[in-house]
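Is this the right way to post structure tokens for a design question? Let me know if I should format differently. Anyway, here goes:
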């Protein structure tokens, strides 16, 4: 069975050398860029058989938006299709119709579904090969590792982090993009068989449906607090400077559709906040700010710093803002020893269950959900009360069946 191959990775069992896959079997198709061609390829996909493999290419390190700059599709009987949604103005109605009743096969689906939803593309059913591999017990679950392990092919690498907003797209990038869906359907078939053999197929369907129907994540209350290096900023006034610079950068990045880090690095925001320059001359004397591009924007950054400097004390950010949920687990022993004991007991229990079922512990129950339960458990921890707490936190039925009773035992012992 495949699971034997999966677990042999950690034991170092050798397999035959993988065959480099450098070109799609049917050749790299031309990019669909006009409505007439889109209708034709949509009809071809609709006439195909079985599920549809889908992938997208974004330009996360280059652009502010997370839009898809290329959509790759493959279906048995239809071959591979490459679609440029930018050239088509985001109007993919024929594709929406062609895919409306099909099962979609994606790898790490949660990364691609949001940008596909922007194009009005929503799956009726879903199969996530990365998540399937996790549930099946594979140690390495990247697409390249799985294809190599299960199908003995080595995928072309090197362009995943490229600037896919570039036009025209180089041929070698299109080859790479087409290969990302070349073997996805075969991988899905193998993983489905493996999950079925392990009695986990129903678990996988619950997980896939949870991903398919998940709402968009709520926006962060204070996203500027995630500025890298902000831990070096101590005073409320300097934190206000970080916030003002972050917001000014975000506005520029959004307006120009440029990745924020390319507008101004986080490290420069922190440096300016700590240095408290009094004028543009002092600002542009700092590294990065002295560059040609930043000199042109120095007025924007200085205005942000002056705004922060003039804020009343009551409007300065709190250095220790209220925390959502429980504190970091490494502080539990000091703040609530009983909760720390509960967490250790429950974690140990879940680790044993995960190992017995050849699952990553984080796929058995989300770590954050476990922490919340242990920090504030039901007053009377019964199977019913724990089940309800976990279910309200998003746990699936298969997870509840495996864990609820054991968690109650662990809570009572601790």
């Amino acid at each position: 069975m495949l699971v034997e191959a999966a677990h042999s990775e950690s034991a170092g069992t050798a397999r035959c050398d993988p065959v480099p896959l450098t070109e799609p079997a049917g050749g790299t198709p031309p990019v669909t860029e006009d409505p007439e061609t889109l209708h034709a390829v949509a009809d071809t996909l609709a006439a195909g058989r079985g599920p549809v493999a889908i992938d997208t290419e974004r330009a996360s390190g280059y652009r502010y938006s997370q839009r898809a700059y290329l959509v790759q599709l493959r279906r048995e009987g239809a071959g591979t299709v490459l679609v440029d949604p930018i050239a088509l103005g985001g109007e993919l109605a024929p594709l929406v119709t062609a895919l409306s009743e099909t099962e979609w096969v994606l790898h790490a689906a949660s990364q691609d579904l949001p940008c596909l939803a922007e194009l009005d593309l929503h799956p009726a059913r879903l199969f996530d090969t990365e998540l399937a591999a996790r549930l099946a017990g594979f140690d390495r679950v990247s697409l390249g590792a799985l294809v190599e392990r299960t199908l003995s092919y080595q995928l072309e690498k090197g362009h995943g982090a490229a600037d896919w907003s570039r036009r025209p797209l180089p041929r070698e990038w299109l080859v790479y993009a087409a290969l990302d869906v070349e073997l996805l359907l075969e991988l899905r078939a193998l993983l489905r068989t493996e999950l079925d053999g392990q009695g986990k197929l129903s678990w996988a369907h619950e997980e896939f449906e949870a991903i398919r129907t998940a709402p968009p994540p709520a926006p962060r209350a204070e996203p500027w607090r995630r500025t890298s290096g902000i831990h070096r900023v101590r005073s409320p006034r300097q934190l206000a400077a970080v916030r003002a610079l972050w917001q000014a950068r975000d506005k520029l990045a959004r307006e120009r559709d440029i990745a924020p880090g390319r507008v101004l690095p986080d490290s420069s925001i922190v440096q300016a906040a700590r240095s408290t320059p009094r004028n543009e001359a002092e600002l542009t004397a700092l590294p990065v700010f002295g560059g040609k591009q930043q000199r042109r924007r120095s007025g924007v950054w200085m205005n942000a710093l002056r705004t922060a400097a003039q804020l009343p004390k009551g409007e300065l950010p709190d250095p220790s803002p209220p925390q959502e949920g429980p504190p970091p687990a490494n502080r539990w022993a000091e703040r609530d020893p009983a909760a720390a004991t509960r967490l250790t007991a429950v974690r140990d229990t879940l680790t044993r269950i995960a190992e017995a079922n050849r699952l990553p512990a984080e796929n058995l129950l989300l770590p954050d959900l476990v922490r919340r339960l242990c920090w504030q458990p039901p007053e009377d921890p019964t199977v019913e009360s724990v089940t309800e707490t976990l279910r309200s936190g998003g746990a699936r039925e298969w997870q509840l069946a495996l864990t609820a009773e054991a968690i109650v035992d662990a809570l009572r012992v601790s």
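Format looks fine. Someone answered above. Worth noting: Residues 74 and 80 are 4 Å apart (CA to CA). The longest helix spans residues 236-256.
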